[in-house]
Amino acid sequence: MEKILVLGGARSGKSALAERWVTELPDAGPVTYVATAGDRPGDDEWAERVRRHRARRPASWRTLEETDVAAVLRTAEGTLVVDCLSLWLTAVLDGTGAWEDAGALVRVDAAVDELIDAWRSSRARIVAVSNEVGSGIVPATPSGRLFRDLLGTVNQRVAADAHRVVLCVAGRALELPAATPIPPASTSADLMPPSAAESSSVTLRCSTTLGRASRHAPSQTMEGHPGVPAPVDAEAERAARERVDGLAKPVGSLGRLEEIGVWLAARQGSPVLRPPARVGVTVIAGDHGIAELTSAYPAAVTPAMVRTVAAGKAAINALASEHGAFVRVRDLGVDADLGDVAPEVTEHKVSRGTGRIDVEDALPREQVRAAIAAGRTLAGDLSADLLIVGDLGIGNTTIAAALIGSITGIDAEKATGRGTGIDDATLHRKTEIVARAIERARPVRDEPEDLLARIGGADLAAMAGFLAGAAERGVPVLLDGVVVTAAALVAEAITPGSSTWWLAGHRSVEPAHDAALDHLGLEPIVDLRMRLGEGTGALAALPVLRSAVAICSRMAALADLDLG
Ligand SMILES: Cc1cc2ncn([C@H]3O[C@H](COP(=O)(O)O)[C@@H](O)[C@H]3O)c2cc1C
Ligand SMILES: O=C(O)c1cccnc1
Q1: Which of 113, 68, 102, 114 is nearest to 87 (CA)?
Q2: Strand residues in 287-405 grouped as ranges (E)
Q3: Which of 2, 295, 298, 483 is the most exposed place for a label (fewest CB within 10 A)?
Q4: Lowest-pLDDT range, 61-75, 220-234, 246-260, 424-438?
Q5: What are phi and psi of 60, to 5 degrees?
Q6: What is the pLDDT of residue 381?
């Protein structure tokens, strides 16, 4: 059920807001108010505060004075207001003696882990209130500093698993955006947009106070089974459809947004949608033997663009920083030495370029296998709850056309496009090369590894492994353009049924794209006449996906309209 975190300073209006929300809920069911304040014998002012709070609440609410919040969350049904996590933390510090004894911090850690676990798994709808205490100057006392740091971390961890987080200031609520440009402690620094780089050391330091400040999406903690896509939650899908149909609008009037919302609910495993909190873009680069014959640009652009993505200055970086996604780039098969960019950029490199696919194999089968495995690893080593993979490599639209032609059966004339913008003579040559590649691949068109060895490349193989790996782990993917969708066709052959975890982000100008999408039964979300790759078309669709989540999670029910 829905989890909401309300943050704010003292007297910001946070408790009143939480209570008002719950009072106004049409389907709150039985409401339990969990007061974590505890007694303060002999403190009359405190007793008066508690009395005032109580008087404000509806008489039908049950009040539970309880500091073991985790136990309450585990067994609760209906709706809970937990007020507040800061007093709960105070009680934990009191109970463990951790104010003075640093050795007792492990027990605080354990209590926080337990709370987070209960928050995540609780069947109740929960509105939790907590203090935002980090804005002032550094407290003068060690206990003040300890409390401030611990509470900041608790708030981060609770927020990471909340459907909504709001910040109250002066009695007004500010809805906090879902995506936070802060990488989890476990991932490498190359996921940061440049603007976040300065604050990263602070972030990582804070997040280790309690071991882990952010969680992996549940599906990410599962290894996944090679060759088998994770199941989707049909019951969540049915319940989400029913919920969406019952919102304050004519049935079906929000069109594709409704479909996307229901699709995502089935993959998140809950009819109550959560906006994607961490969107990870992995750009996979490689060179191709045919490039000089079929592209408008020289192959030297590939390594140059890898550097540009790593520097945060490519189109994909611009879109990602605008829409709260992280970008990393990996060289799987660039025909240049990129070891100096950053060690992780070449961590999975398997080749330098490929053979000319019209006359020879692209690469040996062992390299294909290694690249597929690398792709699977890359899909699993991010704590992202929405994945995007992008392509980078001069000549790669030729490879895409050949793969799409081989798998879907469309001929080279239909499959071949102008890529980066080639002239008629180059288009003619490219079409012949694609036709010869399709011919060479005919005997192995149903064998993904052999097909990639003949007419693919390390980058395409890694993208295919990535897309299969995401489906095996149960992480939704937004597909990009023609190159990524060519890899998706291969991934569907590696792990049949993978496409159930993918949404087509956009429709590329490249002619083979439509055939590939049709083959997969996918309908693109946007058509902006884009033809770049890098993952840009997928990111162009991300705001639409967020819109779908917004309508599905924030609207009133039709049944609650006051028709006089
Ligand atoms: C500066 C530049 C940046 C790019 N970013 C992606 N691509 C895209 O265009 C290339 C594929 O088109 P073709 O098959 O015609 O070579 C790939 O690098 C692809 O990622 C780029 C291309 C260029 C020139
Ligand atoms: O659709 C794509 O992915 C694409 C199109 C042209 C050039 N590079 C990529």
Answers
A1: 68
A2: 325-333, 386-392
A3: 298
A4: 220-234
A5: -75, -15
A6: 87
pLDDT reading at 560 higher than 50: yes
Can you read off the two tokens belonging to residue 282? 């992995």
Task: Return the top range by mean pLDDT from 30-34, 78-82, 102-106, 501-505.
Answer: 501-505
Per-residue pLDDT at 92 = 94
For residue 544, how far is its CA from the centre of ligand 1 (angstroms)?
Answer: 25
CATH numbers and ranges of domains, the chain? 3-176 (3.40.50.300), 279-394+441-542 (3.40.50.10210)
pLDDT reading at 198 higher than 60 = no
List CB contacts of 395: < 8 A, sequence separation 6 or more. 287, 288, 289, 290, 291, 292, 294, 295, 299
Ligand 2 pocket test: which of 510, 526, 527, 528 has the largest number of ligand atoms within 8 Å of its C-beta? 510
Whether residue 534 lies in the annotated active site? yes
Structure tokens at 16: 């009143």
Q: How far apart are CA 288 and CA 411, in angstroms?
A: 21
Contact 453, 465 (CB under 8 A): no
Q: Which two tokens stand for residue 11?
A: 């007297």
User: Rounded to whole angstroms, how far apart are CA atoms 417 and 405?
Assistant: 12
C-alpha to C-alpha distances, 402 to 85, 290, 348, nearest whole angstrom: 58, 12, 25
3-class DSSP state for residue 326?
Answer: strand
Give phi and psi for 153, each to the nearest 5: -70, -40
Which atom of ligand 1 is nearest to 420's Cα?
15
Q: CA 379, CA 198: separation in Å to the nearest integer? A: 27
Q: Which atom of ligand 2 is nearest to the CA of 484?
A: 3
Q: What does the pLDDT average to over 16-39?
A: 85
Decide if pLDDT at 101 tops 60: yes
Q: What is the mean pLDDT of residues 543-555?
A: 93
DSSP E strands in 254-385: the ranges are 279-286, 325-333
pLDDT confidence of 353, banded at 50, 70, 90?
very high
Q: Which residues line ligand 2 (CB under 6 A)?
A: 391, 397, 419-420, 480-483, 508, 510, 513, 531-533
Work out the pLDDT band at 222, boundaries 50, 70, 90. Answer: low
Quick check: ipTM above 0.95? yes
Summarised one tens digit per residue, pLDDT across range 454-481 is 999 999 999 999 999 999 999 999 999 9
What letter represents residue 541's amino acid? A
Which pLDDT score is estimated for 287?
98
User: Ligand 1: which of 306, 391, 484, 532 to mutate, judged by most atoms within 8 Å of the beta carbon?
Assistant: 532
Of residues 19, 449, 492, 534, which has the active-site annotation?
534
Is the whole model's pTM more than 0.90, yes or no? Answer: no
What is d(CA 219, CA 176) in angstroms, rounded to the nearest whole number? 24
For ligand 1, residues with CB inside 6 Å are 295-297, 301, 305, 391-398, 419-420, 532-534
**What is the Cα–Cα distance from 137 to 155, expressed in whole angstroms?**
19
The tokens describing 1, both together, are: 């059920």
Question: What residues contact 516, with CB distance under 8 A and at least 6 apart?
Answer: 404, 407, 408, 482, 485, 486, 488, 489
